[in-house]
Design a protein that fits this description.
Strand content: 5-15%
Order of helices and strands: HHHHHHHEHHEEHEHE
Number of strands: 5
């Protein structure tokens, strides 16, 4: 997004542009692999086990069990995801099954090594927190109840095998603390979940408003304020990095005649179709927007003059070849002036040169692209400072 800087106040921004609704407010995002966070959490648990083993509290053999169960779990989920079994679920990421599997693994390790109960509670809370944002509160409470029951079963097995009253009291104390704290944690975190969802929805609305505020309400392309802010930013980048920058001014030929002959509604439709044709003809990094009336600007960041000229010629040819409404008083064409930025010159000088090229295209018969070659910085000092109300 190009920030709207104070530079936009240099121009006579009196157009009545209001934001146009967009078809979608979705933005592309970098997707993390679904296994990344579980792998990191398992790594933390293994690190805690390793530290405990180094202190002589736990058996080093538990690390082998962790490695084996982790490999089996990842293989099973990879197979399930590969077969697409998760697609019919309300949670396509299958966070709840992953949480259940992780908790089952903690119970297995607790059975193998009673001293691992020290690590069970904190990592159980972490597992529940990870699954909270895609799982219902009721579902997590059921899982918590199952964990408590499973913990109680392991305690019973330990006592039946060892008849150790001290271990029994210690494990029951841990079980009681987990049984009381875990439901309270889930209930409190459910409120955080609701707040998160509301903030997420509000953030999406704000992004949608910001995007709409950049658009021309009639045409859907960028509006005057945005295109001028983008031009200022690209000028700064060109000055700092010496990268090429080109600008084109596009003006629909005889547009006033269209409005006078068949009305402004038909003229608006011509503008909409022209904007659509032009946007289809530009490249991904180019910035196209309405400057005012039937005049448009096209910015070519990081582009030399020849590629910019080729793009302008392509747009001109597409406009000329378009199947326009037969009711129009004549063919719809466009005159385009294009030039390249000279490092260190002002926006006024840059725009004036492109604007002059567009007027030469008009005077030369219209429906053509005219290039105004860039000149040296010293030669630009005498350029006319009146660029048709540019300031």
């Amino acid at each position: 997004m190009f920030p709207v800087t104070d530079t936009s106040q240099w121009f006579d921004d009196t157009s009545d542009d209001r934001p146009a609704r967009r078809h979608s407010d979705a933005e592309p995002r970098g997707a993390r692999p679904r296994w990344l966070v579980p792998a990191l959490l398992i790594g933390l648990y293994a690190l805690a086990l390793g530290g405990s083993a180094a202190l002589g509290v736990l058996s080093p053999g538990l690390l082998l069990w962790v490695a084996g169960m982790t490999g089996a779990g990842f293989a099973g989920f990879f197979f399930a995801f590969h077969r697409g079994w998760h697609l019919d679920s309300r949670d396509p990421q299958w966070r709840l099954p992953i949480v259940v599997t992780a908790l089952a693994g903690l119970l297995v390790l607790l059975y193998l090594e009673p001293a691992s109960q020290i690590l069970l509670a904190p990592f159980a809370f972490i597992a529940f927190a990870w699954g909270l944002f895609t799982t219902s509160q009721r579902g997590l409470l059921r899982v918590a109840a199952a964990l408590v029951v499973g913990y109680a079963v392991v305690i019973g097995v330990h006592y039946a095998e060892q008849r150790n009253s001290a271990l029994l009291r210690l494990e029951v104390m841990h079980l009681l603390a987990l049984a009381l704290a875990l439901p309270a944690f889930i209930v409190l975190m459910a409120k955080v979940q609701k707040l998160y969802r509301r903030l997420h929805q509000a953030s999406r609305k704000i992004r949608s408003i910001e995007q709409d505020a950049q658009r021309d309400t009639l045409l859907g392309c960028y509006n005057r304020r945005y295109i001028l802010a983008a031009l200022e930013q690209q000028k700064q980048l060109a000055d700092e990095g010496g990268i090429p920058l080109c600008l084109a001014v596009l003006d629909i030929d005889h547009f006033k005649r269209i409005n006078d002959r068949i009305g402004h509604l038909a003229g608006d439709e011509v503008l909409r179709q022209f904007a659509r044709i032009a946007q289809q003809g530009v490249r991904g990094g180019d910035v196209f927007g309405r400057y005012g009336g039937e005049e448009f600007l096209l910015i070519f960041p990081g582009t030399a003059l020849l590629p910019a000229l080729n793009t302008c010629e392509r747009i001109r040819a597409h406009v000329e070849a378009h199947a326009w409404d037969a009711a129009l008083p004549g063919p719809v064409t466009v005159s385009i002036g294009v030039t390249q930025y000279v490092v260190g010159e002002s926006l006024l000088e840059f725009f004036s040169r492109a604007d002059t090229a567009m007027y030469l295209a008009k005077e030369g018969g219209r429906n053509q692209v005219v290039v105004e070659e860039p000149v040296s910085r010293e030669d630009t000092q005498g350029l006319d400072s009146s660029a048709r109300g540019f300031f």
